[in-house]
Design brief:
The chain has about 290 residues and is an alpha+beta fold. The chain has two domains: about 80 residues, 434 Repressor (Amino-terminal Domain) (Orthogonal Bundle); about 190 residues, Beta-Lactamase (2-Layer Sandwich). It has twelve helices and six strands. Strands 3-4-5-1-2-6 form a six-stranded antiparallel beta sheet. The longest helix has 19 residues. The two termini are about 35 Å apart.
Length: about 290
C-alpha cells in the first residue's frame, strides 16, 4: 500500500503514518457528524473495537472499509477522495471538465432546465457558489450590480450580499441575508471546506447596503421570499434548489441549480410581459463553462 501512491501525492510514507492519517480523518468526520463510536459502529455494522483501532491507527482500513464508513458518515465525494489518499489508495471519484464528452448529458439537462425556466431567473453554481451557467432571466437579478462583481469568476453569494451588489435592491435584506448565510454555514459544517469557511467570514462582515432594512422581517407566507425593488413595482420570488441525484463525478456532485419562481400574480405578469418583449420565446441560456 505505502509507496504505491502517485507522485503528485508526495513522497512515500510508512504504513503506520498512512493508517494514523486516515484514522484521524475518520475521527474528525465522526465528530463533525456528532456521532459516538458506538453510534457509528451500529450504523455501519462494524465493531466498536475495530472502529477504535482504525481511528487510532492501530489497524489499517481497507479501501472498501473507508468507502463504507464514508457512506455512513455522509462524507462528500471530494472529501472521500482525500480520505482514500490518506489511507494510501488512489482516489476513486473523477473530476471532469464540463466540456468533456462524458458530460454531454449533464450539459443538455442543464441547458434544457435553464431555457425552459425563462423568463424567470435560473442559475447554476458550483460548490463554492461560482456561477457556472444562467439563463436570460437572470438579468432581473444582475440589474444594478457593480460590474466588478459580474467579472468572471462570478461568485453568486458575493454578488448578492455585497453592498455594491444585489443587496441594494433587496427589500427584505435582513431575512434574505440570514437565509443565505444559514445555507452557507450548513455547507461549511457538512464539508469542512476552508474556501467556503473563508467566504462565510467575508459575507458575514458585509454591512447593510441600505441603512434601516437589515432587520429580520416577519413573514406569514409559505417560504422566505426574495423581494426586489424594480421599476414599476417590487418583484417577489420564491426559489427552489435542484442537484443531480446520484453523482459519481466531483464536478456533477458540486453543481446546484437554483430556480426562481414568481411569488405573486403581479410578479408573474410583469416578468412574463417583459420576457415577451425582450427575449425570444424559445428562451436562451448562457454557460460560462
Amino acid at each position: 500500500m505505502a509507496g504505491n501512491l502517485p507522485a503528485r501525492y508526495g513522497p512515500p510514507v510508512s504504513e503506520a503514518q498512512i493508517a494514523t492519517h486516515a484514522g484521524q480523518l475518520l475521527r474528525a468526520w465522526r465528530q463533525r457528524r456528532r456521532l459516538t463510536q458506538l453510534e457509528l459502529s451500529l450504523r455501519a455494522e462494524v465493531s466498536t473495537r475495530h472502529l477504535s483501532f482504525l481511528e487510532t491507527g492501530r489497524s489499517s482500513a481497507s479501501r472498501d472499509m473507508l468507502l463504507h464508513l464514508a457512506e455512513h458518515l455522509d462524507v462528500p465525494l471530494r472529501e472521500r477522495n482525500a480520505l482514500l489518499v490518506a489511507g494510501g489508495y488512489a482516489p476513486t471519484y473523477p473530476e471532469r471538465e464540463m466540456d468533456a464528452p462524458a458530460m454531454d448529458a449533464v450539459r443538455r439537462a442543464i441547458d434544457r432546465l435553464l431555457a425552459g425556466h425563462d423568463p424567470y431567473p435560473a442559475v447554476v453554481v458550483d460548490r463554492w457558489w461560482n456561477l457556472a451557467a444562467a439563463n436570460a432571466g437572470v438579468a432581473l437579478l444582475t440589474d444594478g450590480v457593480a460590474p466588478e462583481l459580474l467579472t468572471p469568476p462570478i461568485n453568486v453569494l458575493r454578488a448578492s450580499l455585497h453592498p455594491d451588489g444585489l443587496a441594494r435592491r433587496i427589500r427584505n435584506l435582513g431575512e434574505w441575508r440570514a437565509h443565505l448565510l444559514t445555507r452557507l454555514r450548513g455547507q461549511v459544517d457538512r464539508t469542512g471546506d476552508p474556501q467556503l469557511a473563508a467566504l462565510l467570514d467575508e459575507l458575514s462582515g458585509y454591512q447593510p447596503a441600505v441603512p434601516g432594512i437589515a432587520h429580520i422581517h416577519r413573514y406569514d407566507g409559505v417560504a422566505v421570499p426574495l423581494r426586489l425593488a424594480a421599476p414599476g413595482g417590487d418583484l417577489v420570488f420564491l426559489s427552489t434548489v435542484a442537484t443531480f441525484g446520484t453523482p459519481v463525478d466531483l464536478t456533477v456532485a458540486d453543481l446546484s441549480i437554483e430556480l426562481f419562481f414568481p411569488a405573486d400574480q403581479a410578479t408573474r405578469a410583469r416578468v412574463q410581459a417583459s420576457g415577451d418583449r425582450e427575449r425570444p420565446k424559445s428562451g436562451s441560456s448562457a454557460a460560462v463553462w
